[in-house]
Amino acid sequence: MTVLARRRSSWAARSRQERLGLRLLLPVLVTVVVVTTIPFVLAVVRALTSDAGQFIGLDNFTKALENGQLIEAVKQTAIYGAIVLPAEILLGLGLALLVHREVRSPGIRAAIYVAAIIPIVIPQIAVGVVFRLVFASDYGVINAALGLQGHDQILWLSQPALAMVSVASVDIWQWTPFVYLIMFAGFQTVPSESVEAAQVDGATSWTQFRHIELPYLRPLLLLVLFFRLADVLRVFDAVYVLTGGGPGATTQFLSLYLYRIAFRFSDLGQASALAVVVMIAMTLFYTVISRFLPVERA
Amino acid sequence: MPRLLKRIITVVVLGAALVAFVFPLYYLVATSLKGQAELYAAVPTLIPQAPTLDSYHSVLVDRGMSELLFNSTVAGVSATVLALIIAFAICYPITRLPVSRRVSAFVLNWSLSLRFLPPIAVVVPYYTIERALGLYNQLPALIIVYTIFNLPLSIWMLKGFLQEIPLELEEAAMVDGASRLRAFLRVLLPLTRTGVLAAGVVVFAFDWAEFLFAFILTATPQSMTFPVGVQGLVTQFEIIWNDMAAGGVIAIAVPLALMLVARRYVVAGLTFGVIRDK
Amino acid sequence: MKSQTWFASWLTLFVPILLVVTACSSGSTPSSGGGTPAGGTPAAGTPGGGTPASNVKLTIAAVQGVEDAGLKALAPMYTAKTGVQIVITESPYPDLYTKLVNAFGSNDATYDLFMMDDPWMPKFGTMGALSDLGAMGVTKDPDVAQIVWDVGTWPPPHGPVPPSEKAKTAQLLGVTIVGNVEMFMYRKDLTPTGPASYDEVLANATAQNKPNLAGYIIRGKATNPVVADFLPILWSFGGDVFDDNWNVVFDNPASLSAVQFLVDKLKPVAQADPASTDASDRDRLMAIGQGYQSSTWPGEINTAVLGPGTTVTGKVAFQPIPKGPSGKGVGMMGNWMLGIPKASKNQQAAADFIKWMLQADTQKTYAQNNGIPSRTSVLKDASLQAANPYFSVLADAFAAPPNWRPRTDQWNAVETIMGTELNAALAGQETSQDVVTKASSQIRTLMKGAGYPTTQ
After folding, report:
1. ipTM score here?
2. Measured between CB atoms, does A118 come within 8 Å of chain B?
3. I need a labelling partner for B174 at 20 to 30 A (CA). Which of B102, B140, C122, C445 fits?
C-alpha cells in the first residue's frame, strides 16, 4: 500500500508537498538564523570601531593577533583537547562495550546509568569546588589519602605539567559518562541478526566488534567526537574555579583568555576582534570536519 | 575458565570505574554535611564526623537562594519548551515532507555549527542586545539565549525520534480524509511524546546548569539563577566549602530526578537517529 | 482513544509559557521581584509595617563575603527608621567588578549604591559614571583620616594622574565603608615580638620553618591575590610599578630585589604550595597552627583566622607592614567604598543613606555588627578592642599613611599581567628576572596602547 502510494504521487504533487515543507520551514529558520547572526554582526562592528565609536579599520585585529599570549592559549587548548578527547572516547566506548557484552542484570545497568547521569547534570561551578577539595595540596583528599604532608605534598594544581593533567582529568571525569551513555545506547541498536550471523560464522569477540559493531557505530562516534570537540573550545567554569588559568598561563585556555581580554582588561574592541576570529576559524574548521559527519543521511 | 576470568575482569574494571566516578560525588555530599569547624581539620575527614544539615539551611534560607531555584526553574522550563517547539517546526518539514536534501543538510549543519561558538565569544554582543531590548536582568533574556543555544541538541534529538516514525501512519490518516494538521495532531504528536520527553529532559538539564550567560545577563536575585548563586559562595576569605557543596548537591538533585524518571526515553534519544536508518 | 491523556500531557508542557509571561510582567514591577532580604528578614519583600510613607527602594551591589556583613546588619535598621527599603545584591569579588563595568558602560539604573574596591576607582572615575557626593552634602569629617577621603576622590589629589583625567576637577565619588589596610600578623606565642623589618621577617621565617609550620605563608594564587600580597613588599623595598610620569619601573633594581625576596628568599621558607594559595587557604593554615606569619587584611581576621574552627585564639598578634631596605614599611589600602552611579534614579535617597551610615553613632553600631569602621574615634574605642584585636593597629596604619594602587583605569590589566608572571615564578616556571622583564614589557605595550605618554 505504501509503495503504491509513493508511486501514485506525481512529481507535481511532490513539489507541492515540498513547497509546503519550505513554507513551514523558512519563517522559523530565517528568524532563528537572523537571531543567531546578529551577535556576530555586532561583534564585527565593535571590532572595527574604537571605544568612542569611530571606525579604526583592522587595528583591533592586529592587536589581537599580535598578542603572544593568544598563541600560548591556542597551544594549551590544543594540548588539553589532545589529552581529553581520546581519553573520553576510548574510555566511554570501552566501558559501553564491556557493559553491553558482560552485564546482563537490568538492575546493575540501571545503577550504572544513574552514576553516569550525575556528572553530566552537575553544574560546572560545583565541579570546580569539589575537585578543589580533591586536588588541593594541603586539604585535598588525594594527598591526605597518600599520607603526604608539608613539602612532600604533590602540587596537583600548581606544578605546571600536573596542573594540565589534573584539569584534564576533571573533564574526563565529567564527560566520559556522556560518551558512555551515547555509545551504550548505540550498541543496543546494532541489529541482532548481523551479530548472530557473525557468531554463527565463528567470529571472535574482537572481530565482531571490529567488523560489525564499530562500522555500524561510526556515524554516532563521529557525532560524539564532534560534540566533545566543540565543548573543549567552551571549557570555562570548572577551570576558572580550579586554577584560574594558572600556574602562570598553563591552563589559560581559549575561552579563559577571551574572558581575560574582555573582562579583566576591559578591552572590548580586542575581545570582539578575537571573538570574530574565533567564530570564523570555527566555521572553517567545521566546514572541513562536517564532511565526515552523518548529516547527509537525514 | 575463560568465562570466569572474563567475569572477574569485568567486575574489577567496572568496580574501579564506578569508584573513580562516584567518589567525587560522594565527597561533595559528605562535605555538604560537615559543620564549619570540621573544614579546619588538619587532615580532611572522609566521613562527616558530626553530620548536619546546617549548610542546606544556610544556602536555602539564610542566603535566600531558594528564590534562585525558582528563577532557574522558570528559565529552564520555558527555554526547553521554546527550543522544542522551534525544533519541531524545523524537524517536521525535513523529516515528514520531501524537502530537498540540500535544505535539510543545511539545517543540520548549521544547527551543529552553532554549538561550535564558544559562549564567551558571543556573551558580550548578547549583553548589548539584551540591554538594547530592555531585557537585561530579566528572565526572558536568559530564556531567549538558552533557547538558541540548545536548539542544536533539540533539533538533533527530535530529528532522531521523528524519522523513526513511519511516514505511512500519517499518510494513512490523510488517505482516510484527515487534514495534514489533523494528522499531525492526532497521529504524529502522540507518537513523539516519549521523544519529546527525552529531549526535554536533556535540554532542561543543560539549561539548568548554565552559568556564563546567567552570570553576565543578570544582576539581582530577581533574575539570577542557582548556579550564579553557587558561584557567589566562592568568597575571598571565608571557608564555607560546606555551603558550596550543599549548593552543588541541590543543583544536581532536580535534573537527576528528571533523568531518572525519563530514563528509558533518554537512552533511546541519545543515538540522535544517526544510525537507525541504515 | 487515549487522546485525553496525551492532550493533558501536552497541556502541562505549555503551562510554562504562562510562567514566562508571569516572569516578564513581574520583572517590570519591582516590588514583587524581591532580592536578598537584608539582614536575614525573609519578610523584607512585604511593605514595612510602621512607616509606609516612603516607598523608595535602594538596590546596593555588594561584594559577597565578610566585607558587607556590617552593611547587611545596618540596612534593616535604616528601613525601620526611615521606611526606605534596601535590597543588597551580592556578587563574588571579581564578578562584582565585571558586573559594575557592564552596568556603568551601558548606563544601567539597576543599582542605586554599590561597593567598590579602591583600585576600581580609576576605571569608574575615568568612565565618568559616578555622582559627586560632595554636591549632595557629604562632608569630609576630620575624624576620618585624610587618606581615606583622598582615596575616594577622583582625579587623585596626589601621585600620577592619567592623561585623560588631568583636566577634570577633583570630586568625592566614594566614601569608605570598610576600613581596609593590609597589615601583618604573626604568632606571638612563638616569638614575643613581631618583625620590625623584612630582614627580620626572613630571619624569623627561617628559624620557625619546619614540617607542619610554614615560616611564612605566601598568598600566591594567580592575578589579584598574589599582587595584593606582593605590593607592600615591592613598595617597602623602594620599588614600584610606575614612576610619577607613568614610566614603567617594575624592572629597576629595587623592584627586581623585591621580586627576588618573594620568589627566591621567602618561598623556600614558605608553605609547600604558594602558587595555588588564596586568602582562605592562608587563613586556614594560620587557623590550624601551621603558619607562623603572613600579611593579612582586616576583613579576614575575625571570620577566618580567628573563625569558628581556629586553634590559635589569643596566639596571633597584628602590626603594620614591616620596614624594607627603603627604611619604611608601606601598607596597602584596599578600602571598600560606597558610591552612587549617575544612572541611579534615587540619587538623594542614596546620598542620605551614606550620610547616615557615616555618623559616629551609626559607625559604632556598625563596628558592633562585624563592620570595619574608618573613623579614628571608633577604631580607638576601648570597648571594641577585645572583639577586634586589630582595630587600634588599623587606625595607626591609616595615619601612616598607606599607599594605594596606581590610579589608572588600566590597573586591572596591569594586575593581571603582574599576577600571572609572579604566579608562574612561584610555580617554578620562570625566574625573578623573567618576571620583571616579561611583565614590564607587557605593561609598557598595554599603557602605550591606552594612550599613556611614555618616554621608554
Report:
1. 0.84
2. yes
3. B102
